[in-house]
Write a structure and sequence with these properties.
By secondary structure, this protein is an alpha/beta fold. The chain contains ten helices and 17 strands. Strands 1, 10, 11, 12, 13, 14, 15, 16 and 17 form a nine-stranded mixed sheet that branches. Helix 4 crosses helix 5. Bound molecules: pyridoxal-5'-phosphate. Pyridoxal-5'-phosphate binds next to loops.
Length: 360
Protein backbone atom coordinates (compact mmCIF):
# COMPACT_ATOMS: atom_id res chain seq x y z
CA UNK A 1 0.00 0.00 0.00
CA UNK A 2 1.29 3.43 -1.00
CA UNK A 3 0.19 4.90 2.33
CA UNK A 4 2.50 2.56 4.24
CA UNK A 5 5.66 3.65 2.40
CA UNK A 6 7.86 5.96 4.48
CA UNK A 7 8.27 9.34 2.75
CA UNK A 8 9.97 10.88 0.95
CA UNK A 9 10.29 7.92 -1.39
CA UNK A 10 11.03 7.28 -5.03
CA UNK A 11 8.29 5.31 -6.80
CA UNK A 12 8.20 3.63 -10.16
CA UNK A 13 4.92 2.92 -11.90
CA UNK A 14 5.78 -0.62 -12.99
CA UNK A 15 3.20 -1.09 -15.79
CA UNK A 16 4.16 2.31 -17.28
CA UNK A 17 7.86 1.42 -17.12
CA UNK A 18 7.21 -1.95 -18.78
CA UNK A 19 5.29 -0.20 -21.57
CA UNK A 20 8.22 2.20 -22.10
CA UNK A 21 10.69 -0.68 -22.22
CA UNK A 22 8.55 -2.63 -24.69
CA UNK A 23 7.91 0.38 -26.94
CA UNK A 24 11.63 1.06 -27.26
CA UNK A 25 12.47 -2.63 -27.79
CA UNK A 26 9.77 -2.88 -30.48
CA UNK A 27 11.11 0.23 -32.21
CA UNK A 28 14.57 -1.31 -32.61
CA UNK A 29 13.45 -4.91 -33.20
CA UNK A 30 13.24 -4.65 -36.99
CA UNK A 31 16.07 -2.16 -37.51
CA UNK A 32 19.75 -2.82 -38.17
CA UNK A 33 20.61 -0.21 -35.53
CA UNK A 34 20.35 -1.60 -31.99
CA UNK A 35 19.73 -0.25 -28.53
CA UNK A 36 22.38 0.05 -25.84
CA UNK A 37 20.36 1.47 -22.91
CA UNK A 38 22.21 3.97 -20.73
CA UNK A 39 22.43 2.64 -17.19
CA UNK A 40 23.29 6.04 -15.72
CA UNK A 41 19.63 7.05 -16.03
CA UNK A 42 18.57 4.75 -13.17
CA UNK A 43 21.65 2.88 -11.82
CA UNK A 44 19.33 0.02 -10.85
CA UNK A 45 20.13 -3.56 -11.91
CA UNK A 46 16.51 -4.69 -11.73
CA UNK A 47 15.53 -2.11 -14.36
CA UNK A 48 18.48 -2.96 -16.62
CA UNK A 49 17.61 -6.64 -16.36
CA UNK A 50 14.12 -5.89 -17.69
CA UNK A 51 15.51 -3.72 -20.51
CA UNK A 52 17.81 -6.54 -21.62
CA UNK A 53 15.06 -9.14 -21.33
CA UNK A 54 12.75 -7.12 -23.61
CA UNK A 55 15.22 -7.56 -26.49
CA UNK A 56 16.76 -5.34 -29.20
CA UNK A 57 19.69 -4.56 -26.85
CA UNK A 58 23.30 -5.35 -27.70
CA UNK A 59 24.61 -4.46 -24.27
CA UNK A 60 24.51 -1.56 -21.83
CA UNK A 61 26.00 1.93 -21.75
CA UNK A 62 27.54 3.39 -18.58
CA UNK A 63 28.95 6.75 -17.56
CA UNK A 64 31.29 5.56 -14.80
CA UNK A 65 33.54 2.60 -14.05
CA UNK A 66 31.48 1.88 -10.93
CA UNK A 67 28.38 1.54 -13.12
CA UNK A 68 30.31 -0.70 -15.51
CA UNK A 69 31.28 -2.97 -12.63
CA UNK A 70 27.63 -3.32 -11.66
CA UNK A 71 26.34 -3.96 -15.18
CA UNK A 72 29.10 -6.50 -15.89
CA UNK A 73 26.99 -8.89 -13.81
CA UNK A 74 24.06 -8.32 -16.21
CA UNK A 75 25.65 -8.22 -19.68
CA UNK A 76 28.93 -9.25 -21.25
CA UNK A 77 29.03 -6.17 -23.53
CA UNK A 78 29.70 -2.90 -21.72
CA UNK A 79 30.32 0.57 -23.15
CA UNK A 80 31.64 3.32 -20.90
CA UNK A 81 30.54 6.27 -23.03
CA UNK A 82 32.81 8.62 -21.17
CA UNK A 83 36.50 9.52 -20.93
CA UNK A 84 38.29 7.43 -18.26
CA UNK A 85 41.74 8.77 -17.33
CA UNK A 86 42.13 8.32 -13.56
CA UNK A 87 44.82 5.65 -13.03
CA UNK A 88 42.80 3.67 -10.49
CA UNK A 89 39.74 3.74 -12.72
CA UNK A 90 41.79 2.62 -15.74
CA UNK A 91 43.03 -0.29 -13.63
CA UNK A 92 39.45 -1.22 -12.63
CA UNK A 93 38.36 -0.99 -16.25
CA UNK A 94 41.14 -3.38 -17.25
CA UNK A 95 40.21 -5.83 -14.50
CA UNK A 96 36.65 -5.74 -15.79
CA UNK A 97 37.88 -6.54 -19.30
CA UNK A 98 39.15 -9.88 -17.98
CA UNK A 99 35.51 -10.97 -17.61
CA UNK A 100 33.47 -9.02 -20.20
CA UNK A 101 33.84 -7.07 -23.45
CA UNK A 102 34.65 -3.49 -22.45
CA UNK A 103 34.68 -0.44 -24.67
CA UNK A 104 35.47 3.10 -23.59
CA UNK A 105 35.28 6.54 -25.17
CA UNK A 106 38.52 8.46 -25.67
CA UNK A 107 39.33 11.98 -26.83
CA UNK A 108 43.01 12.44 -25.91
CA UNK A 109 46.44 10.91 -26.27
CA UNK A 110 46.72 10.72 -22.47
CA UNK A 111 43.42 8.85 -22.38
CA UNK A 112 44.71 6.28 -24.89
CA UNK A 113 47.99 5.69 -23.06
CA UNK A 114 46.51 5.49 -19.54
CA UNK A 115 43.87 2.93 -20.52
CA UNK A 116 46.38 1.07 -22.71
CA UNK A 117 48.93 0.81 -19.88
CA UNK A 118 46.39 -0.70 -17.48
CA UNK A 119 45.22 -3.10 -20.19
CA UNK A 120 48.76 -4.31 -20.93
CA UNK A 121 49.49 -4.86 -17.21
CA UNK A 122 46.32 -6.95 -16.91
CA UNK A 123 46.87 -8.81 -20.18
CA UNK A 124 43.57 -7.67 -21.72
CA UNK A 125 42.40 -5.67 -24.73
CA UNK A 126 40.00 -2.79 -24.21
CA UNK A 127 37.93 -1.55 -27.14
CA UNK A 128 38.00 2.19 -27.83
CA UNK A 129 35.54 4.52 -29.49
CA UNK A 130 36.97 7.85 -30.56
CA UNK A 131 34.61 10.40 -29.02
CA UNK A 132 33.57 13.15 -31.44
CA UNK A 133 32.19 16.54 -30.50
CA UNK A 134 28.99 16.67 -32.54
CA UNK A 135 28.03 20.10 -31.21
CA UNK A 136 27.47 19.69 -27.49
CA UNK A 137 30.97 21.05 -26.77
CA UNK A 138 31.58 18.80 -23.79
CA UNK A 139 34.14 16.08 -24.57
CA UNK A 140 35.22 14.84 -27.97
CA UNK A 141 37.60 15.68 -30.78
CA UNK A 142 36.53 17.33 -34.02
CA UNK A 143 35.19 15.05 -36.74
CA UNK A 144 37.52 14.46 -39.70
CA UNK A 145 41.30 14.89 -39.50
CA UNK A 146 41.56 15.25 -35.72
CA UNK A 147 39.49 12.12 -35.15
CA UNK A 148 41.53 10.21 -37.74
CA UNK A 149 44.79 11.18 -36.02
CA UNK A 150 43.51 9.93 -32.64
CA UNK A 151 42.10 6.77 -34.24
CA UNK A 152 45.56 6.00 -35.71
CA UNK A 153 47.06 6.42 -32.25
CA UNK A 154 44.54 3.98 -30.74
CA UNK A 155 45.15 1.54 -33.57
CA UNK A 156 48.91 1.63 -33.01
CA UNK A 157 48.76 1.21 -29.20
CA UNK A 158 49.07 -2.13 -27.41
CA UNK A 159 46.31 -3.16 -25.01
CA UNK A 160 43.59 -1.22 -26.81
CA UNK A 161 41.75 -1.87 -30.06
CA UNK A 162 39.99 0.64 -32.24
CA UNK A 163 36.31 -0.35 -32.44
CA UNK A 164 34.78 2.81 -33.85
CA UNK A 165 33.45 6.27 -33.05
CA UNK A 166 30.78 7.81 -30.87
CA UNK A 167 29.06 11.19 -30.70
CA UNK A 168 26.38 12.25 -28.25
CA UNK A 169 24.28 15.26 -29.16
CA UNK A 170 23.19 16.24 -25.66
CA UNK A 171 22.24 19.71 -26.88
CA UNK A 172 19.76 18.18 -29.37
CA UNK A 173 17.84 15.92 -26.99
CA UNK A 174 15.59 18.61 -25.48
CA UNK A 175 14.78 20.55 -28.70
CA UNK A 176 11.01 20.88 -28.41
CA UNK A 177 10.05 21.18 -32.06
CA UNK A 178 10.16 17.79 -33.80
CA UNK A 179 11.09 19.17 -37.25
CA UNK A 180 13.92 21.25 -35.83
CA UNK A 181 15.13 18.32 -33.70
CA UNK A 182 15.18 16.13 -36.78
CA UNK A 183 17.04 18.50 -39.05
CA UNK A 184 19.60 19.55 -36.42
CA UNK A 185 20.24 15.92 -35.44
CA UNK A 186 20.85 14.88 -39.04
CA UNK A 187 23.17 17.83 -39.53
CA UNK A 188 25.12 16.97 -36.34
CA UNK A 189 25.38 13.23 -36.97
CA UNK A 190 26.46 13.37 -40.64
CA UNK A 191 30.05 14.33 -39.67
CA UNK A 192 30.08 11.37 -37.23
CA UNK A 193 29.04 8.95 -39.98
CA UNK A 194 31.45 10.59 -42.46
CA UNK A 195 34.30 10.21 -39.95
CA UNK A 196 33.50 6.51 -39.60
CA UNK A 197 33.79 6.21 -43.38
CA UNK A 198 37.05 8.19 -43.35
CA UNK A 199 38.52 5.76 -40.80
CA UNK A 200 37.49 2.76 -42.91
CA UNK A 201 38.81 4.26 -46.15
CA UNK A 202 42.08 4.93 -44.30
CA UNK A 203 42.38 1.23 -43.55
CA UNK A 204 41.28 1.45 -39.91
CA UNK A 205 38.60 -0.69 -38.26
CA UNK A 206 35.31 1.04 -37.39
CA UNK A 207 32.53 -1.42 -36.64
CA UNK A 208 30.73 0.76 -34.06
CA UNK A 209 29.08 4.14 -34.61
CA UNK A 210 27.36 4.95 -31.34
CA UNK A 211 25.22 7.93 -30.29
CA UNK A 212 21.76 9.22 -29.59
CA UNK A 213 19.52 9.65 -26.59
CA UNK A 214 15.86 9.63 -25.63
CA UNK A 215 15.00 12.81 -27.53
CA UNK A 216 16.52 11.67 -30.80
CA UNK A 217 16.43 7.84 -30.59
CA UNK A 218 14.21 7.44 -33.66
CA UNK A 219 16.18 10.01 -35.68
CA UNK A 220 19.69 8.67 -34.96
CA UNK A 221 18.41 5.10 -35.12
CA UNK A 222 17.27 5.58 -38.71
CA UNK A 223 20.41 7.28 -40.00
CA UNK A 224 22.28 4.76 -42.16
CA UNK A 225 25.64 4.14 -40.53
CA UNK A 226 24.64 4.55 -36.87
CA UNK A 227 24.95 1.10 -35.31
CA UNK A 228 23.67 1.70 -31.77
CA UNK A 229 21.66 4.21 -29.74
CA UNK A 230 22.53 5.03 -26.11
CA UNK A 231 19.11 6.21 -24.87
CA UNK A 232 18.57 6.14 -21.10
CA UNK A 233 15.76 8.38 -19.82
CA UNK A 234 13.01 6.77 -21.93
CA UNK A 235 12.61 3.96 -19.41
CA UNK A 236 11.20 6.20 -16.66
CA UNK A 237 11.00 9.64 -18.30
CA UNK A 238 10.82 12.99 -16.51
CA UNK A 239 8.76 16.14 -16.81
CA UNK A 240 11.39 17.83 -18.99
CA UNK A 241 11.30 15.05 -21.59
CA UNK A 242 7.51 15.03 -21.10
CA UNK A 243 7.47 18.35 -23.01
CA UNK A 244 8.53 16.46 -26.15
CA UNK A 245 6.25 14.45 -28.40
CA UNK A 246 7.74 11.10 -27.30
CA UNK A 247 5.78 7.84 -26.99
CA UNK A 248 6.99 7.21 -23.42
CA UNK A 249 5.10 7.63 -20.15
CA UNK A 250 6.07 9.33 -16.90
CA UNK A 251 6.91 6.32 -14.73
CA UNK A 252 8.92 7.90 -11.91
CA UNK A 253 7.60 9.99 -9.03
CA UNK A 254 8.64 11.21 -5.62
CA UNK A 255 6.08 10.38 -2.96
CA UNK A 256 5.64 12.90 -0.14
CA UNK A 257 3.39 13.38 2.85
CA UNK A 258 1.39 16.59 3.32
CA UNK A 259 2.85 18.22 6.43
CA UNK A 260 0.97 21.52 6.25
CA UNK A 261 -2.09 22.89 4.44
CA UNK A 262 -3.18 26.54 4.58
CA UNK A 263 -5.74 27.45 1.90
CA UNK A 264 -4.12 27.09 -1.49
CA UNK A 265 -0.74 26.29 0.05
CA UNK A 266 0.01 22.64 0.58
CA UNK A 267 3.44 21.60 1.84
CA UNK A 268 4.90 18.10 1.51
CA UNK A 269 8.08 16.56 2.92
CA UNK A 270 9.97 16.14 -0.37
CA UNK A 271 12.26 19.05 -1.14
CA UNK A 272 15.23 19.35 -3.44
CA UNK A 273 17.22 16.89 -1.32
CA UNK A 274 14.89 14.32 -2.90
CA UNK A 275 14.82 15.61 -6.49
CA UNK A 276 16.98 17.98 -8.47
CA UNK A 277 15.79 21.24 -10.02
CA UNK A 278 18.42 21.60 -12.76
CA UNK A 279 15.70 21.04 -15.38
CA UNK A 280 13.07 23.05 -13.52
CA UNK A 281 10.44 22.41 -10.87
CA UNK A 282 8.62 19.06 -10.75
CA UNK A 283 5.00 18.60 -11.83
CA UNK A 284 2.20 17.41 -9.54
CA UNK A 285 0.93 13.95 -10.49
CA UNK A 286 -2.79 13.39 -10.84
CA UNK A 287 -4.06 16.62 -9.28
CA UNK A 288 -5.47 18.99 -11.93
CA UNK A 289 -4.90 22.67 -11.20
CA UNK A 290 -2.02 22.02 -8.75
CA UNK A 291 1.54 23.20 -9.37
CA UNK A 292 4.82 23.30 -7.47
CA UNK A 293 5.67 26.86 -6.39
CA UNK A 294 9.06 26.04 -4.86
CA UNK A 295 11.28 23.33 -3.47
CA UNK A 296 13.19 23.96 -0.24
CA UNK A 297 15.69 21.53 1.30
CA UNK A 298 13.02 19.37 2.94
CA UNK A 299 9.77 20.84 1.62
CA UNK A 300 7.79 21.05 -1.60
CA UNK A 301 5.48 24.05 -1.61
CA UNK A 302 2.52 23.18 -3.80
CA UNK A 303 -0.28 25.51 -4.87
CA UNK A 304 -3.56 23.60 -4.97
CA UNK A 305 -7.13 24.62 -5.84
CA UNK A 306 -8.98 25.86 -2.72
CA UNK A 307 -11.53 23.07 -3.00
CA UNK A 308 -8.85 20.36 -3.20
CA UNK A 309 -9.44 17.82 -0.44
CA UNK A 310 -5.83 17.17 0.54
CA UNK A 311 -5.27 17.32 4.31
CA UNK A 312 -2.27 16.94 6.58
CA UNK A 313 -1.13 13.32 6.50
CA UNK A 314 -2.28 12.66 2.92
CA UNK A 315 0.18 11.59 0.22
CA UNK A 316 1.08 13.49 -2.93
CA UNK A 317 3.35 12.50 -5.83
CA UNK A 318 5.59 14.82 -7.82
CA UNK A 319 7.11 14.09 -11.24
CA UNK A 320 10.80 15.10 -11.21
CA UNK A 321 12.14 17.23 -14.05
CA UNK A 322 15.40 15.25 -14.47
CA UNK A 323 15.57 11.56 -13.59
CA UNK A 324 19.31 10.79 -13.61
CA UNK A 325 20.46 13.10 -10.79
CA UNK A 326 17.17 12.59 -8.90
CA UNK A 327 17.60 8.83 -8.73
CA UNK A 328 21.20 9.29 -7.62
CA UNK A 329 19.85 10.95 -4.45
CA UNK A 330 17.99 7.82 -3.33
CA UNK A 331 18.96 4.40 -1.99
CA UNK A 332 16.00 2.44 -3.35
CA UNK A 333 13.06 2.56 -5.72
CA UNK A 334 9.64 1.32 -4.64
CA UNK A 335 8.13 -0.56 -7.58
CA UNK A 336 4.36 -0.06 -7.59
CA UNK A 337 1.48 -1.59 -9.50
CA UNK A 338 -1.27 0.94 -8.83
CA UNK A 339 -1.53 1.16 -5.06
CA UNK A 340 0.29 -2.14 -4.43
CA UNK A 341 3.97 -2.35 -3.58
CA UNK A 342 5.49 -5.06 -5.79
CA UNK A 343 9.14 -4.81 -4.79
CA UNK A 344 11.88 -2.54 -3.44
CA UNK A 345 14.87 -2.23 -5.76
CA UNK A 346 18.25 -1.06 -4.47
CA UNK A 347 19.86 1.67 -6.61
CA UNK A 348 23.09 -0.28 -6.50
CA UNK A 349 25.33 2.08 -8.50
CA UNK A 350 24.33 5.36 -6.83
CA UNK A 351 26.88 7.72 -5.27
CA UNK A 352 30.67 7.66 -5.38
CA UNK A 353 31.53 5.23 -2.57
CA UNK A 354 33.26 2.87 -5.00
CA UNK A 355 35.57 5.60 -6.24
CA UNK A 356 36.48 6.56 -2.67
CA UNK A 357 37.27 2.92 -1.85
CA UNK A 358 40.58 3.51 -3.67
CA UNK A 359 41.71 5.48 -0.58
CA UNK A 360 41.24 2.51 1.79
C1 LIG B 1 27.08 10.09 -23.60
C2 LIG B 1 25.60 9.97 -23.35
N1 LIG B 1 24.91 9.08 -24.07
C3 LIG B 1 23.59 8.90 -23.89
C4 LIG B 1 22.89 9.63 -22.92
C5 LIG B 1 21.44 9.29 -22.71
O1 LIG B 1 20.60 10.33 -22.83
P1 LIG B 1 19.09 10.26 -22.39
O2 LIG B 1 19.04 10.01 -20.92
O3 LIG B 1 18.64 11.59 -22.74
O4 LIG B 1 18.44 9.16 -23.13
C6 LIG B 1 23.58 10.60 -22.16
C7 LIG B 1 22.88 11.44 -21.19
O5 LIG B 1 23.29 12.43 -20.71
C8 LIG B 1 24.98 10.76 -22.37
O6 LIG B 1 25.70 11.64 -21.66
Amino acid sequence: MKNAIPTPALLVDLPAMERNINRMAEHFAARPCKLRPHFKAHKTPEIARRQLAAGSCIGLTCATVAEAEVVSLLTDDVLVANEIVDIDQCERLARLAVRVKVRVAVDSQAGVSRVAEAAVVNGVTIGMLVDLDVGQHRCGVSPGAEALALARLVDAASGVALHGVMGYGGHLQPVRNRGERESRTREAMIPLIATAELLRSSGLPCEVVSGGGTGTYDIDGDLPGITEVQAGSYVLMDSDYGELDLPFEQALSVLGTVVSRKGERCVTDCGHKTMTMDHGLPLVKGLPGASVAALNDEHAIVTVPLDCELVVGDRLELLPSHIDPTINLHDAIFAMDGDSLVSVWPIVARGYADERAALD
